[in-house]
Specification:
Blueprint (H helix, E strand, L loop, with lengths): L7 E4 L2 E4 L3 H13 L3 E7 L1 H9 L1 H8 L3 E4 L2 H10 L9 H11 L4 E6 L2 H14 L4 E5 L8 H14 L3 E5 L4 H9 L6 E5 L3 H6 L7 H5 L3 H12 L1 H10 L2 H31 L1
Parallel strand pairs: 3-4, 3-8, 5-6, 5-7, 7-8
Antiparallel strand pairs: 1-2
Length: about 270
């Protein structure tokens, strides 16, 4: 399936793709096979609402191959708008599934620390003894031109099929948009803190929290217990609580608009 054929809906102008895991893997396989390139965003409510007022981030998400629903609230929104294929896909689950299902692909890890990257590589090799995987931990600062070129050169040398970008929400989306075209081929996937979920350094919320779309509550509680000062900084910077309020207040109107948009998309395909 071509990514251009995948319908999507928008919430306040930000794309959410109507896609399931099987179609994600089919498209990634096709892009790799045809030596093309592109990038994929995983979008949760916080990133979506931030994007409504951040033009660079909104453009990055909307011009991606896919904007995957990383959270049940976006799945509920899309389903109420008429999306039938959509399912929740988290960064850690996508990382683990593609390592196992895309046998023979070359993976590259970009972000976090060298220690975390080493843990991811060790676990990936336990899951797939045929995997080719390497990575690089860039400096924890705003990248200058030299930092950026060094990262891109390391990726080009590795010639990966999939580049897992772990810079955090907002930064990774705009970085992928700005840089994916400089590579000859490969798919960049922005996965936030997925490396640490994958290794178990961050606890994955219990399934009941995930089904209720409340994994963010579990994660906030864990973060507060670990470091209250850092907790308040993260909540403010990522608009974690305020974004939920904005999302709920706009939900009814955006569902109505998304239904109309999806009908227009489907009509255009059939005509």
């Amino acid at each position: 399936m071509k990514y251009a054929d995948i319908p999507y809906v928008k919430f306040k102008g930000v794309k959410v793709s109507n896609i399931c895991y099987e179609n994600v893997i089919d498209t990634i396989t096709s892009v790799i096979k045809n030596k093309q390139h592109g990038y994929i965003c995983l979008t949760d409510v916080s990133n979506l609402i931030v994007s409504t007022t951040n033009e660079a981030m909104r453009t990055a998400i909307n011009e991606s191959l896919f904007s995957l629903a990383d959270g049940m609230p976006l799945v509920w929104f899309a389903k109420m708008a008429g999306c039938e294929e959509i399912e929740r896909i988290s960064g850690a689950s996508l990382l683990q599934r593609l390592i196992v299902d895309l046998d023979g692909c070359k993976h590259y890890l970009l972000g976090d620390t060298e220690e975390t990257i080493a843990k991811v590589i060790a676990k990936a090799k336990r899951l797939s003894n045929k995997i080719e995987i390497s990575g690089h931990s860039p400096p924890f600062k705003d990248f200058d031109a030299e930092d950026n070129e060094r990262m891109l050169e390391k990726i080009r040398e590795a010639k990966p099929d999939i580049i897992w970008v772990c810079f955090g929400g907002g930064k990774q989306e705009t970085w992928m948009k700005q840089n994916f075209a400089t590579l000859n081929s490969g798919v960049m996937i922005g996965v936030g803190a997925a490396f640490r979920f994958f290794t178990g350094d961050i606890i994955t919320p219990p399934r009941i929290f995930q089904k209720l779309g409340m994994q963010w509550v579990f994660r906030l509680g864990e973060a507060f217990i670990k470091d209250p000062v850092h907790f308040f900084g993260v909540v403010h910077r990522r608009q974690i609580l305020s974004s939920k309020v904005v999302y709920l207040l706009n939900f009814p109107r955006e569902v109505t608009l998304a239904r109309k948009q999806l009908r227009t998309f489907n009509t255009g395909k059939s005509s």
